[in-house]
Amino acid sequence: MFYNEEFETLPREALKALQLKRLQQVLQRVYHTVGHYKKALDAAQIKPGAITSLADLPKLPFTTRQDLQENYPFGLFAVPMSSIVRLHASSGTSGRSTVFGYTKRDVETWSELMARCLVAAGLTKNDIIHNAFGYGLFTSGLGLHFGAEKIGASVIPMSGGNSKRQIMILQDFGPTAICCTPSYALHLAEQGKALGLDMKTLKLRVGIFGAEPWSVSIRDEIETIYGITALDMFGLSEVMGPGIAMECQEGRGGMHIFEDHFLVETINPQTGEPLPEGEEGELVFTTLTKEAFPLIRYRSGDITRLITTPCRCGRSHIKMERVMKRSDDMLIIRGINIFPAQVEAILADIEGLEPNYQLIADKISALDSLELRVEVSEKIFSESGSVKELQNIEKRIFKDMKDYLGITPRVKLVEPNTLKRSNGMMTKVIDNRRRA
Ligand code: ADP
Ligand code: ZN
Fold first, then answer.
1. What per-residue confidence (pLDDT) applies to 201?
2. Which of 286, 313, 390, 405 would bridge 248 by S-S if both were Cys, CB 3.0 to 4.6 A apart?
3. What total number of domains does the chain contain?
4. Which of 277, 300, 328 is the last residue of a domain?
């Protein structure tokens, strides 16, 4: 089943021709409307008109997360604010977050791509979709929501949290599909079990999961506990949001990337060299149709392989394997992305702390948990009667992490020079979660 059969099954030759045409258009547009791209292309001595085939793509400079941060909040927008109808943002303090803008047509395109994902999962207007992806500034909740409405399904805008209420609604409203992070699905199943509920007795038949890495064995576990088909969906807000790639029901294993809207490459993350299709590397995306926030050769940080063998479902679009690795130090905690540099920025604003800290990620039952250990200064530590002060600092760190990053870590202040170092270097991140 397709949502847009013509474009989803476009023969590869026609698809490549369409990609080239759209690439040339977007290059002209960003060159003339976004200062950053004019500068970057001029510096690389490339005129937008110099790209005459897709093979020329590697001549274009990469766009990086740093470019996005330097242009915070709206510096990379290619249209005036009067043409923007929606703003989303990643977590982070000012200048360390990224803002994503959408025109009316961008929202329309995004909804269509999400609709393609839902149809690829076998959903129709007769389905009730329980959407437990987070609503708000994050892209996943609303992104999926618009796609669900587009196919005419009944969507429950549940968002995350309130597990008991989620269980109640799963029982009472009888949704046939559930969408959330895979770890939240496992968490809900645990909650259900504690309440004496067998998840297999629910009406659910399909689950669409994403926003964090999950292995085939976790997929199998979810399928067994719920008695559903569990499909993988991939996306990143910079490029659009969820709905950039979707696993189809017929050809399990790998997600189709909607190539009429995105051009994908894999590169060697160390050297930036393009890799032959099929080799493991970092995914790089160029948006072909986005109006408000086009991106040229954006380095996603996600490491995986492209699959070029034709798929049974009839879609002509290339597939990508599951994403299990990153090329950078980004952590995903309960579907929220954080970088150690963002934590550093928060700590730097609080007096009495040494810049030394450690983030320790763990799983407590199915859910991610994070501990943040921070060294305090000698002065504060040695001053008598400062227990209260230490508690206040702990509270402040917790609150800032919650407010700016949307993360609620256990915060522990420790004495100066007590955090473990190896060869004099702090280990800033310890990830004890097993993704087996
Ligand atoms: P999302 O809400 O989809 O997580 P974000 O922009 O917050 O959007 O995060 C994007 C990042 O999340 C990706 O770069 C990738 O690291 C991770 N991610 C998203 N979907 C998946 C998936 N299906 N499998 C593995 N990682 C994923
Ligand atoms: Zn397929």
1. 98
2. 313
3. 2
4. 328
